Amino acid sequence: MADKATVFLTGQDLSHEVTVANAILARWPGFEFHPTPKFFPFDFHIMRVYRRGSADYLGGLEVKWFNHDSTKPGVFNFNKLLQLLAMTVHRDDPDCHHRVAFRFTDGILIAAARDVARNEPFLFNRRDRNETDLVVRVSPTTTPGTWLDVAT
Q1: d(Cα 49, Cα 44) in Å, to the nearest integer?
Q2: Cα-Cα-Cα-Cα dihedral sign, residues 20, 9, 31, 100
Q3: For residues 51-65, average pLDDT
Q4: Confidence tier at 60 by pLDDT (50, 70, 90)
Q5: Where are the domains of the chain?
Q6: Any bridge partners for residue 33, and if so which?
């Protein structure tokens, strides 16, 4: 049995993260995503790059991959959300905050972690692992954020 502190990252997870990042970058020119080590609470650092070559740090981006369309809500692990919120961003820029990109089969919802945290947590039974997790429900209709109408 694996230790609870073990971080699992498969090749498929990495492929999913890169697919979502590339879809976002195609719609957001002037940004860069820099991968983080696998033990980091989020998948990418977000940088806004200016023509002069300078850049601003805008926070982290976590990618969550759903295998269904946006008509059905997804769930996001509450403990993971708390980790994102605990990573303080020390900037006065209102654009500087951690985000979560929720990939649905028909688009991507990019939401600020603080907005996802407004959803009430509940216990969720995972059938695949026979585990109970504390999660929040995420949906493009109920979670504030930016919707990218792009199928990945």
Answers
A1: 15
A2: positive
A3: 91
A4: very high
A5: 11-140
A6: 46
For the domain with range 11-140, which CATH number is right: 3.10.310.40, 3.40.1350.10, 3.40.50.1820, 3.30.750.24?
3.40.1350.10
pTM for the structure as a whole: 0.86
Q: How far is CA 61 from the centre of its chain?
A: 5
CB 36 within 8 A of CB 60: yes
103 touches 149 (CB < 8 A): no
How does DSSP assign 84-114, residue by residue? HHHS------TT-S-EEEEEETTEEEEEEHH
Strands 99-104 and 55-65: parallel
Looking up tokens 């890169």, which residue turns up?
18
